[in-house]
Inverse folding.
């Protein structure tokens, strides 16, 4: 334990000595109300937490009753100069975890992506089995170090879990998997999935409300039909073949889509007909040079009759073709009656496409309150004449809502 204590030992020993030299010998820290002490301990990192054992005899074992434990970047940075830090790290985590005397509601293990740390499945399973017997509710394991072959099987023994973050594993389920009946939030990123494992996992979480996932490789499709309580989906796609990727979203209200692949179109990920209940939509890295993407946004606006907020961020990758004069973008027969807030951010090469979309939104959004439009001049010199022209065109556009306020900004 000495290697863990050394980080904060000096400051805490100084504090302890000051206490010992006080004339009245009153242990003022220990006499603080329990809720105040808990609040202090909650904001200490793992090194500082363990070092509180040096303060006095009363504080010797206070740290091992704290219900929230986290081993994050600051902890792992201590081992940067060691050729093979894994054995020492595993020993310290074990020595901190196993003597713990009380419930552990939150546990975070965030291994940096730049490290050479390898934690074996044996240690993962021992730790998580221990946590499952301590009433763990929030479990976060970001294994950005060396990619692990298999996820800890004891994760599914943690039946009181409400929040689960998993990254850097091959996700598989045992034949006797009985689900996580209390899980409300699930984040999965930088994982690989055995066939059928992802859908089975989702089906086993009947209370799931928020789901964040990053997909790469060759995922064929995801059916979320059984996730009837799912209202918030955040999906990042990093693969080319995604036709019909999301099959069903029965009650989704908030949707964030992001594509890290230039060949992927949002139109291929999910049909607008699945977005009837949608209230919030964010599209990141949209290619507004693509006719199909513009038409997809229009079709979503027409289908998602309950949409209140729309956010669009362009990737600004092509910039050579002029925007088509699309009849669909001149349509005045539709009505986006619930839409109140729109945020559009583009680069210098595709703002013309965005202007066509803005014209459509302004002309058909009777409840619109704010439309924020930002142009990023990242690689080009700011042209005042262009900015003035954009401002004038925005002011002259027809508005279905007299309360609509347009906020035009730019960044160099």
């Amino acid at each position: 334990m000495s290697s863990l204590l050394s980080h904060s030992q000096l400051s805490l020993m100084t504090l302890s000595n000051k206490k010992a030299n006080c004339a009245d010998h009153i242990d003022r820290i220990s006499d603080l109300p329990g809720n105040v002490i808990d609040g202090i301990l909650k904001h200490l990192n793992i090194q500082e937490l363990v070092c509180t054992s040096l303060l006095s005899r009363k504080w010797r074992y206070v740290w091992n009753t704290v219900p929230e434990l986290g081993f994050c970047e600051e902890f792992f940075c201590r081992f940067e100069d060691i050729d093979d830090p894994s054995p020492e790290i595993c020993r310290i985590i074990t020595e901190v975890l196993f003597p713990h005397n009380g419930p552990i509601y939150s546990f975070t293990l965030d291994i940096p992506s730049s490290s050479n740390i390898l934690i074996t499945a044996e240690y993962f399973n021992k730790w998580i089995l221990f946590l499952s017997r301590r009433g763990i509710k929030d479990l976060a394991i970001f294994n950005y170090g060396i990619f692990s072959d298999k996820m800890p099987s004891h994760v599914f023994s943690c039946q009181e879990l409400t929040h689960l973050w998993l990254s850097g594993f091959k996700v598989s389920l045992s034949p006797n998997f009985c689900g996580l009946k209390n899980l409300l939030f699930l984040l999965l990123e930088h994982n690989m999935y055995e066939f059928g494992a992802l859908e089975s996992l989702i089906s086993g979480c009947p209370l799931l409300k928020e789901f964040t996932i990053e997909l790469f490789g060759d995922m064929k499709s995801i059916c979320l039909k059984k996730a009837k309580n799912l209202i918030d989906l955040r999906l990042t796609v990093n693969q080319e073949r995604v036709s019909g990727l999301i099959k069903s979203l029965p009650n989704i209200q908030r949707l964030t889509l992001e594509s890290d692949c230039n060949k992927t179109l949002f139109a291929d990920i999910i049909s607008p007909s699945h977005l009837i209940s949608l209230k919030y939509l964010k599209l990141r890295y949209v290619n507004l040079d693509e006719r199909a993407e513009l038409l997809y946004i229009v079709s979503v606006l027409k289908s998602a009759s309950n949409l209140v907020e729309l956010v669009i961020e362009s990737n600004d990758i092509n910039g050579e073709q002029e925007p088509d004069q699309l009849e669909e973008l001149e349509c005045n027969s539709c009505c986006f009656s619930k839409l109140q807030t729109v945020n559009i951010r583009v680069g210098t090469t595709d703002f013309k496409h965005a202007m066509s979309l803005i014209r459509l939104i302004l002309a058909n959004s009777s409840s619109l309150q704010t439309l924020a439009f930002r142009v990023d001049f990242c690689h080009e010199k700011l042209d005042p004449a262009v900015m003035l022209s954009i401002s004038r065109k925005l002011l002259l556009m027809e508005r279905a809502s007299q309360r609509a306020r347009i906020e035009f900004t730019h960044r160099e």
